[in-house]
């Protein structure tokens, strides 16, 4: 809050609200695969997004993400990635990456790479003020399943992934400003606290290429170190998603 991220990054939070589908077409269809390409215009930030879905007969879907910025001057990017919403029953997860606790671009040296499992709700830490939580860095694969072990598995292709799974939405975490400020005048008061965040009737799965560092050199205004900031530019990444049954 102290570095006013809720102000300078607002354009990215709002960008998806102005996402416009320009074209969607099947660019290849054979016995081996069907490839569908969707192109979007993000008018708010004068940029383009292309998503290519390669659907294979064995039940796998490869998703290629390609973001191309325009000439508009844009601030640092908080996160580059995609979000999948699943039914509430998918409340368990396993992953191969940093763990077992939260890990981020600039906070992962104490998180050993390995295979871990747990409940979705158990990955979230309810800080006094709602904020980013439960992220896992350097993900090779991650599965989100129901109580019977059935669900979906995502696997990295060329780049390791950053991923988090919540029983709430990004909007539930977003900063809300109320009239007034703190005693110091540096940190604005908030109208949302962690007791306001409760499990929803869906599961949110963030499947990202990058997420900016969390910073934290002090507790208010210090920005994230330069090497852990995401500058606007062209981004590409891919992952494979498929059905999984952990108990078979």
Q: Name the overall outline.
A: globular
Largest sheet: 9 strands, antiparallel
Q: Overall pLDDT, averaged?
A: 90
Number of helices in the DSSP assignment = 3
- Secondary-structure element sequence? HHEEEEEEEEEEEHEEEE
Short précis:
It contains three helices and 15 strands.
Which features characterize this protein?
15 strands; 6% helix; 3 helices; 248 residues; 4-stranded antiparallel sheet; mainly beta; Beta-galactosidase, Chain A, domain 5; 9-stranded antiparallel sheet
Describe the protein's architecture and organization.
By secondary structure, the protein is mainly beta. It has a single domain, classed as Distorted Sandwich (Beta-galactosidase, Chain A, domain 5). The chain is 6% helix and 46% strand. The strands form three sheets. The protein has a nine-stranded antiparallel β-sheet, with no helix packed on it. Strand 9 and strand 10 form a beta hairpin. The protein is globular and about 55 Å long. The N and C termini lie far apart (46 Å). About 3% of the residues have low confidence.
Layout of helices and strands, plus pairs?
Layout lengths: L4 H4 L1 H6 L3 E11 L4 E9 L4 E9 L4 E9 L10 E9 L4 E8 L12 E8 L16 E4 L1 E5 L4 E7 L4 E6 L3 H4 L3 E5 L6 E3 L11 E10 L23 E11 L3
Antiparallel strand pairs: 1-2, 2-3, 3-4, 4-15, 5-14, 6-7, 6-9, 8-11, 9-10, 10-15, 11-14, 12-13
